[in-house]
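User: Quick sanity check before I run a bigger batch. Here is a single chain. Can you write out its predicted 3D structure?
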Amino acid sequence: MIKNSFLTVILVAFLLACTEEIDVSLDSTYARLVVDGSIADDSATYRISLSQSADYFLNEPAPRVTGATVRINDGTGLFDLHETEPGLSGIYETDSGFQAVPGKLYTLLVDLKESIAGMSACQASCYLRPVTNLDSVSALFHPDWGPEGVWTIKLWAQEPGNEVNYYMFNLYRNGKLLTDTITKKVVSDDKYINGSYMNGVDVMYLNHAHKWETIFPGDTIILQMSGITEEYFNFISQVQQAGYNIPFFTGPPANVTGNISDGGIGFFAAFSNTYARNTVKN
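Assistant: Done. Predicted structure follows.
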């Protein structure tokens, strides 16, 4: 009886400890430049975002980095980017109709109006890899997968097989991007399909219970397949892994590896795109 009473006391104490409020104190650190943006071989206007890192518990948006000089070098010339709202936005755009070329190395050059933690300039380079053409895309509904079913997005394309290739996939529904954050993008290498014909390969799964990010019969879907570098593949993978750290009480993952020089964080990416369109059937 004494033994059982002792175990009961220990159990009650443990349960009370589990409900105790924990005050987490995180030290402040120095600010760093954060760069986020990409270019591709589609003719379009591309954006580069500049901001500063901020403390975890800061209850306001991260400070924007304004008034910078931002350019892109393709090895033969310089392209100037313009701040959308000069001195306010921290968003820098290429001219409309900018179009990168597969096989070229692109370098982002940033000169700051005011230094950040001793940094006054930085750069980042990314090689624009070509991508194989998509032949077609389709969607198949599995009503017995999960409580409300799951859609699988399938593609058909010839994998070139000439070297290790890395891909990124995005999905549009009726013209709207569903994979609109980095955690929703799908990346893959060609380890198991190198040189093979991708005959209805599953590349994406959509939980039909999530009505805001699923598809419905009659919808028009567009699958975008991008040829990316190994470095960008690793960057996206690391960001996604950091967002799903399980078990929850494990230590933090290693810092995500970007390609920004001089202590900056983030990634400047260049990639090529191919598309396939279809109408969703029952």
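Helices lie at 2-18, 230-243.

User: Great, the batch can go ahead then.
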